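<derive_structure_tokens>
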Amino acid sequence: MFELDMRSRKPIYEQLVDKMKELIMNEVLKPDEQVPSVRTLATELTINPNTIQKAYRELETQGFIYSIKGKGSFVNPNHKIRDSEKIKTIKQELEKLILEALFIGISVNELIQMIQELDSAKGGGDEND
């Protein structure tokens, strides 16, 4: 279920957060479904339970999961609401970066080509939507 790169410069908890988000957004983990307990996941991945706890805290802060004391953590069914906020933030950040890229001389065509290459690399496009 989880593949973590122990040699990566990216912290393990961030890798875990990203993987959990991916599973939630792709609906591998369904709304209100219980996520593995900290202890279970720590044993399965052979990593420190505090690392798992830190990842779960981050996911809860971002609104992807919620916790019920004594029962565990569950996938938040309202994560799509948070997604619209995230989209707004990303668009603002992209706007700044695009303006900077244009200012330093990157052409519009280069930017479009870059977006198309990234889209095809991730398997996007109209035929795959």
Remarks:
- The mean pLDDT is 87.
- The beta strands are 65-68, 72-75.
